[in-house]
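INTERNAL TRANSFER SHEET
From: sequence group
To: structure group
Subject: HAT C-terminal dimerisation domain-containing protein

Please process the attached sequence and return the structure record in the designated field. Keep the field labels unchanged so the import script can parse them.
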Amino acid sequence: MVQRFLELSSLISDILLHRPSAPQMPSAINLQKLQAVLVVLRPFENVTLEMSSQRNVTISKVLPLVSCLNNSITLYTLDTELGSKLKDVTVAELNKRFGNIEKFYSFPIATLLDPRFKNLHFKDPVDCSKAIAKLKNLESASDQMVMQYLGTPVINLSQDPIETWEEMKTVYPQLYNESQKMFCILATSVPSERLFSKAGATLSKERNRLLGKRLSKLLFLNSIDDKYWF
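Return from structure group:
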């Protein structure tokens, strides 16, 4: 909304000038402040869209995205006082909420098992070592297998980690089994919220006699990608 307002600010200003009863147009200084706010908040929109996917692996993206988001915002140089304060508050909140993410279980293990990231985005070497040690204890994976896997180059970000693991499952069978368990975890509740919204739209007043079994089938059919229909 802020971005759209800034894009149309010149048109909005012309319209407001011809309407005496209209609210006052923000000053140039305020528009500059809004621009600074937009610069700080835009990366959050990109991260939110990336994490809200329901057709791709998301659990392994949390740690890398938080790390990249923190780094990118920290490097910003903003001209306005408001923008600088917003940047500082944002970085502080990120550290407060995600500062210990490498100490959790699912996020670091899933990141290590993702061939796109592995151990590239860990900030704390100690936490990274602990996560690797946990990975070695899972599914009775040998030290040699884990270190051999981590020593291979990462794949391109556009590649599918699930398909990559299907190709590597004979080489790292124990790690493959663990990756299948991890990659089915969703990073956010957005996909389930989408499902509830679709269920509410389907079970309307006009269709209030739909049974749960039929509703489940309709929601399943609705979730299938168009490319599988034709």
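Handover comment: The radius of gyration is 24 Å. The longest helix spans residues 28-51.
Transfer complete.
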